[in-house]
Design brief:
Length: about 475
């Protein structure tokens, strides 16, 4: 153990925690006085705040199917992978209410794509337009400004609230379908504990002084007002952070509702749990960062949540915010009810599907009515003739795309260039791998010969042991 570690204060691995308030949290799908959005008219303000802002940059001109086809074919080469992402993206082909997938790169987050497909395929009461669109299913956005001339759908991105515009990337946000937000959580207000509460993880892609970590450290010194805990530490930060605070015990999302004030702090990107804590009938103290989901721009501070600065700034204000909320309990209760009603109206699965359908309608409109006809004629499948069928099965080779002869020839040339480039890359990689194997084999042969020679020489029986020591561990 180093000197620095030895000087660290003795902090127990698991902290002593006050038991949650007694009683059962009521979980319901309906509550008197609450209503859920059922039509696009109900979502009109949500479209204005969010969808219109995302689509504005693409509506400045008309787009052709040829341009979309070119973008799909060169996507993997022109759109860089995020340095922390896994590089998963696919073309989703939506026809007659059924979504099929053609992977453009990766497949690691196949489960997330499966959730998107299940949501669309299961929406029998909604008619989705036929469409073909690219989805980035990584947490991290990839469309660095200028790299994506056409919309790429994603679930998280950064937004410059002060300028009212994209920050670094220009994806179009779509709802998250791998989480469910149908339940209302209720616990008597006067029995809720008057503390700020959080349970979260510190992930490897987060900075060590993330808002979550800063608040967990602060909570150690102010247990009378804060119960902010980290339940898991991932990645290389594990050794550094375990000396700063004790790990907290797990608490179910239902039991979160037993505290009056919930803290929502970002992870690697925006926190998907925000929707759940908005439904908990508690005041939400939300970190004010650039990361957003599709609906964030409709949330209003001090109406749906209490703004909390990010990073070290959160530690400077959270205690005073808790004191302020304790001092005006009636206002705090009204804020919690307002947030819960808003979240129940706009964030369950059906309103999310309505929002996504409208997003696809606006996306199709960019192509002046050509999209539906192109999909009907199996145009997207024709971009992948070497594949023969879709990842999820298309029933055989697709018919010709709805393109002119010149456009079809252009697509063929693009595909041929792509194949040649891939062959060169694979050939180069194979040659380098063979050269490395040959080099390693020669080193092993020389080493074996040297050992044999030294063993035969007088006084040389321990020579090979000295060579092993020189190489050091892990070098053979």
């Amino acid at each position: 153990m180093g000197a620095a570690a030895a000087l660290q204060p003795a902090i127990p691995l698991l902290r002593m925690e006050e038991p949650a308030p007694e009683g059962v949290v009521e979980v319901a799908r309906y509550k008197a006085g609450f209503d859920q959005a059922r039509t696009e008219e109900d979502l009109k303000q949500l479209f204005k705040d969010n969808l219109d802002a995302d689509m504005a940059g693409f509506r400045r001109r008309a787009w052709s199917i040829k341009e979309l086809a070119e973008f799909v074919l060169r996507f993997d080469h022109t759109v860089p992978r995020h340095e922390q992402g896994e590089g998963n993206a696919a073309l989703v082909i939506l026809r007659n209410g059924t979504a099929k997938v053609q992977w453009l790169r990766g497949k690691d987050n196949h489960w997330r794509m499966a959730c998107i497909q299940a949501a669309i395929n299961g929406a029998k009461s909604l008619r989705f337009p036929d469409s073909a669109f690219i989805v980035n299913i990584d947490d991290f956005p990839v469309c660095v400004l200028g790299r994506c001339p056409l919309p790429v759908f994603t679930m998280y991105k950064k937004w410059d609230a002060k300028r009212g515009g994209n920050f670094e990337t220009n994806e179009v946000l779509m709802p998250v379908f791998n989480h469910h937000y149908e339940d209302l959580y209720s616990f008597p207000w006067d029995r809720k504990r008057s503390k700020a509460f959080m349970r979260a993880s510190q992930q490897g892609c987060m900075v060590p002084n993330s808002t979550r970590a800063v608040l967990a450290v602060l909570s150690e010194d102010h247990p009378d007002r804060l119960d902010l805990g980290i339940t898991r530490i991932d990645g290389a930060q594990k050794h550094d952070l375990k000396h700063r605070f004790s790990k907290a015990g797990f608490v179910t999302i239902e039991d979160h509702a037993k505290w009056k004030y919930q803290v929502s702090a970002d992870g690697c990107v925006a926190q998907s749990r925000l929707a759940k804590v908005l439904l908990s009938n508690s005041v939400v103290l939300k970190e004010e960062s650039a990361w957003i989901e599709y609906y964030y721009r409709s949330l209003r501070p001090w109406k749906h949540y209490v703004p909390l600065p990010e990073g070290d700034g959160s530690a400077r204000v959270i205690l005073s915010l808790v004191d302020q909320l304790r001092g005006d309990d009636r206002r705090a209760q009204h804020l919690a009810e307002s947030a819960q009603k808003w979240a129940y109206r706009f964030l369950p699965n059906y309103p999310r599907l309505l929002y996504f359908r409208k997003t696809l309608v606006e996306y199709n409109a960019l192509f002046g009515g050509a999209m539906e006809h192109w999909v009907k004629e199996f145009g997207p499948e024709a971009l992948f003739p070497s594949n023969g069928k879709l990842d999820q099965g298309s029933g055989g080779p697709p018919p010709d795309a709805l393109l002119s002869e010149a456009e079809r020839e252009h697509v063929r040339l693009q595909q041929e260039r792509y194949r040649r480039r891939r062959r060169r890359q694979m050939t180069r990689a194979a040659v380098e791998a063979l050269a490395e194997e040959a080099k390693l084999a020669e080193q092993q042969r020389q080493f074996a010969a040297a050992i044999a020679a030294s063993a035969a020489a007088p006084g040389g029986k321990h020579w090979w042991l000295r060579q092993l020591r020189k190489l050091g561990p892990g070098r053979l």
